[in-house]
Amino acid sequence: LNSSSDCSTALPAPSITSRYSSYVGTTHFLPIGTYTISLTRGPDCNGAHGSSAGAVVFIDYNHDLDWDDANERVLVFANSINQGDVVTGTFTVPSNVLVGQTRLRVMLGENMVGSSQGACNNFTWGETEDYALFIRAKKYDYAATQILNPDTLGFCADVSNKPICRVSNVG
Q1: pTM of this prediction?
Q2: 47-52 long-range CB contacts below 8 Å, 24 or more apart?
Q3: N or C: which end of the chain has fewer CB within 10 A?
Q4: E runs forming strands in the chain
Q5: Which of 14-28, 74-88, 144-158 has the lowest mean pLDDT?
Q6: CA distances (Å), 156 to each of 39, 97, 148, 149, 165, in order?
């Protein structure tokens, strides 16, 4: 995911300039695993407020159209993000999660305490962004790592001399 919103750019509906951005028109595939996310606090849209902000990231792991369930708050950033700051965190998509289409929500808000912030709570100044995700089983990349038969370059294909190779997961 790599997106940016500012105070004046209108995004696809149902986006609201400088409040809510919907990026659900493009689905991002997310194999089960560990990920790093970075958030940058841009300029304040309605003048310099001078307050620090907090942020929180949610994933609707059970696809029930909310982010209220245990472990769906995947990242919390303390209320100490100032204008221009970049914060980075990691989260893990668990191996027992329901695979398929779901949503990710990112919220960054002034004076937000992320550990108690609900995914639908309001804040005075900030931005909420929604993304469409497709969680899939762990990524496997298979490759032929060794040719076992024929073991010479003088191989001529026929039905009695079938190629045999070793395949390994290199993902």
Answers
A1: 0.75
A2: 48/83, 49/110, 49/125, 51/110, 51/111, 51/125, 52/79, 52/80, 52/81, 52/82, 52/110, 52/111
A3: C
A4: 20-31, 34-40, 53-59, 73-81, 86-92, 100-110, 126-136, 142-149, 164-169
A5: 144-158
A6: 57, 48, 15, 12, 16
